Structures are given as structure tokens and as C-alpha cells.
Amino acid sequence: MTDFTILADKALRDELLTREECLTVLQTPDTNLLELLQAAFKVRERHFGKTVRLQMLLNAKSGACQEDCGYCSQSSVSTAPIERYGLLPQDQMITGARRAAAAKAQRYCIVISGRSPLDREIADIASAVRSIKQEVPIQICCSLGLLNERQAKDLKAAGVDRINHNLNTSEAYHAEICSTHTFQDRLATIRHARTAGLEICSGGIVGMGEGDEDLIDLALALREVKPDSIPLNMLHPASGTPLEHCTPLTPQRCLKALCLFRFLHPRTELRIAGGREHNLRSLQPLALYPADSVFVNGYLTTPGQPAAEVWRMIEDLGFDIQVDALPTQGATPATAPAVGLHS
Ligand code: SF4
């Protein structure tokens, strides 16, 4: 049996695992999964202790996208029965931030469908973010599609902390899941956000028919990007999307993928993202051994675990919810420790 502590020790020394070691992680027999999780937890514990970061999403504009991303129920090639609406009014974006804070989310993610945002949409979102920052002690992430440098700068000036833009899969496999934009287009948006001084959230999706080598290439490409956080989505195949018939993931496959990302990104926030409930099922708590971050209250077009159930899961594990010291712009700075569920 592989000695996974060797891999954990390498990660703790910030040494890159070999490709062969990465494959060993993904191909771990299910009977050895607990040893793998224990090794990944050693790395997670060094850099994140037993804390868990919560985030909440707002789908601020839904459907009617002209792109053809095969995994997405909002794409031009999807017939999935989803809600379609234009950009929500600012007061709804602000209300969403209040709800996220009440759910103990450290970060609120405003997401819109579409290839790229219109300038008036950027202006509306920027205005809503300014109001949120005056009132709600929460970090703001925006996921708005492909951005140019000026749009990224406008968002930064409004108080946006972070941009989400996922690489999704390996560069070699990208054309299999999307033909309307390229992997390089995605990298360019990340560069513009970085140039504007924004933090970067970038991850991918497991289960789109990619091979082990693609998953490893994705994790290695993200090492070049050096994101501040990595969301790892697990495909929840929606009826009516091109990927609806993909081979279903197993909970074990999802856990091995999370362990791989933890070893290759020992110091980076690692989020169990979309598809968590559907794919991990009753093994969800185990995923918090490699990962340190989750979404609460659902995703863009699918429901998810309510915040209170997530709090309970974290409490049952003996972990704590992380709450950053986040004064609003109108308030005096204060510090807050990581708090448990009863704080
Ligand atoms: S660009 Fe975004 S909204 Fe449009 S199809 Fe791709 S993932 Fe879906």
C-alpha cells in the first residue's frame, strides 16, 4: 500500500508531487481511502487548522447565455428547465448579502450568466457592492464571465475583493466541453483581474468525462495561476445539457480528487463546490478533511444544503466556522476570532 504520509510530508515542505504520485492518489483503492484522507488532513490542519469557510452564492442573472459550456444548464445548447431573468435590481443583491452574513458566510458571490458582462451591468453591480460594503461585514466575490482590464478595475474600485473565473478542466480537454471560448480566454480574464489588484478564485469541475491526466493537468495549471481559493465542482449532470449522460461520479472519486488538490495546493483555500450534495451524498463530512470551505444554501440553478445543516455537520466534525475580522467601510475595525457554532 502507498505510504500517503510521504505525500503529505512533501506537500508540507511545499514540494511538488511527481505525476506518478498524483496518479497514485487518484487511483487509490477505495479500501485505502481513509489513509489517504488522513494524510490530506495533515496538510489541511497545518495551514487551516479545523476551520471551515462558508460562502453563499447569488445567481444575479440567470440563463439565456450564448456560450455552449456543456456542463451548464444556462447555456445556448441546454434545454434544462431553469429560471431565466435579467440582472436583478440592486436592492435584491444587497438583500442577498444580508442573508449570506446571517448564514455565517464569510464571502458572498455575485454570479451572472453570459460570456461577458455589459458595462451597465458592471455599473449596477459596482453600485450594489458599494452599498453592501457600507453595511454588511462580508467579502465580495464576483463571477461575471470574461472581463477586460477596465471592467476588472471598476469592480476593484467599487470594493469587490475577489473574482471567480474557473479554468474548469485541462487545456487539452477544454475544447470537449466548450467551443465558444478557449482556455486561453479564461487565463486572460484571470490576468486582468490580477492586474486590477483583485484576489483570484479559480478551480474546476470533476466528472465531465476527463481522464486522470486532465485532472492532474488542471491542478498543475492552477499552480501557475496561484489562486487565493480553488472551488472544486463535481458535475451534477442536468437533464437537457450535453453532459447529462456522463458517467456518474462516486463519492470516493470526489474525495480522491479533493485530496489531490490539497496535496498540490497545500496553502490554498479549497472549496467543495457545486455538486457536493449530489455526488458525495452521505460521505460529505469526509470531504472537509482535505477541503476547508463550502457553499451554503444552494447553487446557481440547483438547491443545496441549508446553512443550519452545514453548521451542524461542521459542529459534528468538531470543526469551527471561520469568521474573518471584516469591518464595514462605515465602521471601526474590530477583530473577531474563529468562532464555533455556539459563539
Ligand atoms: S459562460 Fe457561464 S453561463 Fe454561459 S454557458 Fe458557460 S458557464 Fe454557463
* CATH topological fold name: TIM Barrel
Terminal Cα span? 42 Å
Order of helical and strand elements:
HHHEHEHEHEHHEEHEHEHEHE
Number of β-strand runs: 10
Please give the share of residues in helix: 25-40%
* Radius of gyration based on Cα positions: 19 Å
Number of domains: 1
CATH architecture: Alpha-Beta Barrel
Estimated share of beta-strand residues: 5-15%
- Cofactors, ions, other ligands: iron/sulfur cluster
Topology:
Elements: H1 4-12, H2 19-26, H3 33-48, E1 51-61, H4 90-102, E2 107-112, H5 119-135, E3 139-143, H6 149-158, E4 162-164, H7 171-177, H8 183-195, E5 199-201, E6 204-206, H9 212-225, E7 229-234, H10 251-264, E8 269-272, H11 276-280, E9 293-296, H12 307-317, E10 320-321
Parallel strand pairs: 1-2, 1-9, 1-10, 2-3, 3-4, 4-5, 6-7, 7-8, 8-9
Helix pairs in contact: 1-3, 3-10, 4-5, 5-6, 6-8, 9-10
The structure holds iron/sulfur cluster.
Which features does this protein show?
343 residues, alpha/beta, TIM Barrel, ten-stranded parallel sheet, 10 strands, disordered C terminus, binds iron/sulfur cluster
Give an overview of the whole structure:
- With 343 residues, the protein is an alpha/beta fold.
- The chain has one domain: TIM Barrel (Alpha-Beta Barrel).
- 40% of the residues lie in helices and 14% in strands.
- The chain is built from twelve helices and ten strands.
- It has helices at residues 4-12, 19-26, 33-48, 90-102, 119-135, 149-158, 171-177, 183-195, 212-225, 251-264, 276-280, 307-317; strands at 51-61, 107-112, 139-143, 162-164, 199-201, 204-206, 229-234, 269-272, 293-296, 320-321.
- Helix 4 packs across helix 5, helix 6 (149-158) packs across helix 8 and helix 9 runs parallel beside helix 10 (251-264).
- The chain is globular.
- Residues 331-343 have low confidence and may be disordered.
- The site of iron/sulfur cluster has 10 residues, from loops.
